[in-house]
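**User:** Hello, beginner here. Are you able to go through the protein record under this note? It all follows right here:
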Amino acid sequence: MTDRPKQPDPDPAPRRRMTAEEGIALWSDLMHTCEQFLLAGLRRKIGADGDLDAAYRDWYARRMEEHDQMMVRMLHELDRRSHEHGA
């Protein structure tokens, strides 16, 4: 008889549901952590003497431009598909 590795339990014990306050606190902590990673990356890119506020504004402007372009592409695609199906 060979020893097989133990298989994970397909039905793990149920987890306690978070309260709304706990969920909001967790989300807030995650957003703060992500912001710190972003700022650290920008700081690394611009160097110790660079203008972090300006770098953030530039990053944000580029991100919003990319988002706007994605939304326009999505709307064009939805329009195209709606005409294909006779709507």
Summary: The longest helix spans residues 52-84. Residues 57 and 63 are 10 Å apart (CA to CA). Helices lie at 20-46, 52-84. The chain has a mean pLDDT of 91.
